[in-house]
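ok trying again, last paste got cut off:
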Amino acid sequence: MDITLLIVETLKFIFPAYCANAAPVLAGGGLAMDFGKDFVDGKRVFGDNKTFRGFFFGFAVGIAVGLVEWMVFDYPLLFSFFTPLGALLGDLTAAFLKRRLAIVPGGLFPVVDQVDFVVGAIVFALPLRMVNWELAVASLILTPPIHLLTNFGAYKLKLKKNPW
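nice, full thing came through this time. structure:
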């Protein structure tokens, strides 16, 4: 596959996940998804940064973007739900791992912070047979610089406390 076409197809595929992952920054806050509770190891399950409001807002935004892509690109309808859900659950999984490793909420977990949501979106898209190895690898290569750039922009706009 031509590299330009691969990049375009990758960005189209992963865009709902990008939006689902980014949106909670705009509407986060509120009740923590772990209800402030600790896991069996005595550490928080997810931390204060993972809230129901952020999760459901991110899910709604991701679904909306996915529905537009469903209409425009004739993607499977379930794509509109699976990729945003996978992205958000991938991010929650990373938050869970960060707490186990004693990394504070908002603390840096290099590479994982940049690809957790992409891995989740890819895994959830597998049943739809939309992902091949090239698309998966391209998603994992393209995302870290995009993620770092957008997070830095959100930091400069005072939407995030850290530039990562």
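cool. The chain has a mean pLDDT of 95. Residues 3-156 form one domain.
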